[in-house]
Write a structure and sequence with these properties.
Number of helices: 2
Shape: elongated
Number of strands: 4
Structural class: alpha+beta
Oligomer: single chain
Strand content: 25-35%
Number of domains: 1
Length: 130
Amino acid sequence: MKQSQRGITFIGFVIMLCVVGFFAYCAMKLVPVYTEYFGIVKSMNQLQTEPGIASKEIGEIRQMLNTKFSIQYVDEATVPPQNIQLKRQSGAASLRLFYDKRVDFIYNVDLLISFDKTVNLSGSGSASGE
């Protein structure tokens, strides 16, 4: 009588291992970038709750953000000062922060991740981008 075998072949296992390894490598490259972004978002949300923040000038706001960035382990080279913008329109103030992050991936292939976040400084609501 012929017995049937069940399970995965060695070649199937190697292919599956390569696919899982590729996605693990992607995660190792992208998780630190998104962790840093979440630190930026947290800093902006903390800044939003500061009393009188809507009336401050952009220089003061940038300085306060840089202080909060250092607490959140955000590299100061990640967000250039010109990418932190304050917009005042009809009595409402909003803070926009945007930047691109380039990550070396494989050989001559890089990943470019764009982030854009806007918070309303005049009230409790916030609008967000990517």
